[in-house]
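ok here's Protocatechuate 3,4-dioxygenase subunit alpha:
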Amino acid sequence: MTLTATTSHTVGPYYHIGLTWLNREDLTEEGTRGERVAITGQVVDGNGNFVNDAMLEVWQANAAGKYRHPEDQQDKPLDPHFQGFGRVPVDAEGRFRFTTIKPGTVPGLKGTTQAPHLVVLVFARGLVKHLLTRIYFDGEPANAADPLLACVPEERRGTLLARADAAGHYQWNVILQGTDAETVFFDY
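and the structure:
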């Protein structure tokens, strides 16, 4: 008996990303500890056209640098008012906005320390598999020693940096498709 492999398919124009109750513009709640920050941006393709059906899934540590996950065994406090996760759909022009807290540093491999960052999964029509990237904060002193950021060519690091344009407000865009300005995405 010969079995034919199932073909891979991209997410089509009628695909609805489920669990909409996880969509949250504000990842914080009353009592969340840490510096609140707003991050805005736009998802565009390689031609600069907005991608109006994207969704960003955000994962991050709390202000103390601890993830709300059983594998995070650090002796740091959990914040009972911060989940560290949310989904942010874009609007009709590919724009997004969410409020969160600036995370603390987290341990990296071989005793290194990772700079404050948000892990972002990008879902959109045309992607067979979601894309994985990070948001770092421009001007953060810990960026200089971050082991993952150090692996990214210097001329490409800017695609991972959210830039402050006002107190507590950062701008960061997602650029899809192979131009020199394309956001850096990671294999995992």
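+1. The mean pLDDT is 90.
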